[in-house]
Amino acid sequence: MSDDLCSIVVIGFNESGRLRESLDSALAVRDAGHAAEVLFVDGGSSDGSVEIAESCAVDEIIGSSERRSAAANRNVGWRHTRSDLIQFLDADMDLDLNWIASASKVLAANPACAAVCGEIRERRPTLWARVFQLDWRRTPGPIAYCGGAALFRRSALDAVDGFPEDVPYGEEPLLCWHIRNDLEFTIEFVAAPMVTHDLAFAGFGDYWRRCMRVGETQASVAARCWHTSDPLWRSETTRGLVWPLLYFAAAAVLVFAPPVFKIAIVAAILFLLIRKSAQTFGSGQTASVACAYAAHTYFAKIPIGLGIAGWILRRPQSETDATRKT
Questions:
Q1: CA–CA separation, 72 vs 87, rounded Å?
Q2: How many CB atoms lie within 10 A of CB 245?
Q3: CA atoms within 13 A on the CB side of 72
Q4: What is the DSSP string of 126-193?
Q5: Mean confidence (pLDDT) of the chain
Q6: How far apart are CA 201 and CA 252, in angstroms?
Q7: 141 class by beta-carbon count within 10 Å (0-12 exposed, 13-18 middle, 19+ buried)
Q8: Given this structure, which CATH class describes domain 2-200?
Q9: Less crowded by CB within 10 Å, the N or C end of the chain?
Q10: 154 beta partners
Q11: What whole-number distance in Å separates Cα of residue 243 and Cα of residue 240?
Q12: Is the CB of residue 190 less than 8 Å from the CB of residue 140?
């Protein structure tokens, strides 16, 4: 295996519209001498993604005749690599040319660090893309988890047997939970450009589904860690269930209560929105982004809460004691 280079694993499912740009960005990193190889792992696409990858100069293509999850794609990919460091990349992301060099220095300087991630920037700077980008802000240093793009040590992946494949979403945070708790290694965030991302929202339906998935992911991961010493997303899941109930109570007050209580509810809503807008504006955002982020922060609690509740209601019996199994 290579001691000074990394392998880049790009995963995708029906991403033909964005795949070529993603692969080209990874190949540019390889050709610049920062990576040993580029692999594309397809999760059973039917849109010509494999053919696009074949037309690029990737080192290996791993296809599938059946639908394969993102976690399984990543596991298949890194187990086919030959480097000690593995950079994961989703097919809707473009890798920054200088990221590998920056991230590998962090790993070299910190033997107890298992993975490094960096800044995610939206490819299309629409208002809502800029709003969602604020959800991904991190403080440099140790963090609880990373997302689908990060540079990992192979030794850490080997030690925890890769990404857990028995959760529908949230395999990256759960992997990081095992790395931090089972291996006592850290996950680091550095303030350096890592990828550009294509949010690709076509309308309100995409927004709603994304927020619902956030709730489902939080509940699924929290169930695995609920009674441990590191209850990842337990408080978020609990609050996520409470907020929709508060909204329902507020709606009932606005409909049935005397005017003085209605005025109090409206005043409370305005206070929350104005406070969040002011905080975001004070961090350097424009007024439009600050107001939109405030609206997103409180409106998203509805689909997130519904996602949590939906997961709880339909979760399989096998996950009832998931915390103990984790």
A1: 16
A2: 10
A3: 15
A4: -HHHHHHHHHT---SEEES---S-EEEEHHHHHHTTSS-SSSSS-HHHHHHHHHHHHS--EEEEEEEE
A5: 92
A6: 32
A7: exposed
A8: alpha beta
A9: N
A10: none
A11: 6
A12: yes
pTM, full prediction? 0.91
User: Which residue, chain included where needed, has tokens 């350097």?
Assistant: 284
Rounded Cα distance between 130 and 133, Å, is 5
Considering Cα of 175, then 177, then 182, then 185, what sign does the dihedral take? positive
Rounded CA separation 140/118 (Å): 9
Question: Per residue in 197-252, pLDDT tens?
Answer: 988 777 889 999 999 999 999 999 999 999 999 999 999 999 999 999 999 999 99
How do residues 250-304 score in pLDDT, each as one tens digit? Answer: 999 999 999 999 999 999 999 999 999 999 999 999 999 999 999 999 999 999 9
Which tokens go with 141? 């240093």
Looking at this protein, which amino acid is placed at residue 267?
A
The token pair at 62 is 């791993």
Evaluate whether 147 touches 92 at the Cβ level (below 8 Å). Answer: no
Left, alpha or beta for 282 (phi > 0: left; psi -120 to 50: alpha)? alpha
- Quote the DSSP letter at residue 318: G
CA angle 8, 13, 19 (to 5 degrees): 55
Beta strands in 44-140 (DSSP E): 60-62, 83-90, 93-95, 113-122
Q: Quote the CA–CA distance of 229 and 227 in Å, as a whole number.
A: 7
Q: Which residues pair with 141 in a beta bridge?
A: 189
> What CA–CA distance (Å, rounded) separates 247 from 245?
5
Q: What is the pLDDT of residue 127?
A: 86
Q: What is the C-alpha to C-alpha distance for residues 217 and 70, in angstroms, rounded to an integer?
A: 14
> How far apart (Å, rounded) are the C-alpha atoms in residues 30 and 7?
9
> What is the H or E stretch that residue 201 is in?
none
Tokens of 115: 């993975």
Q: Domain spans of the chain?
A: 2-200, 221-325
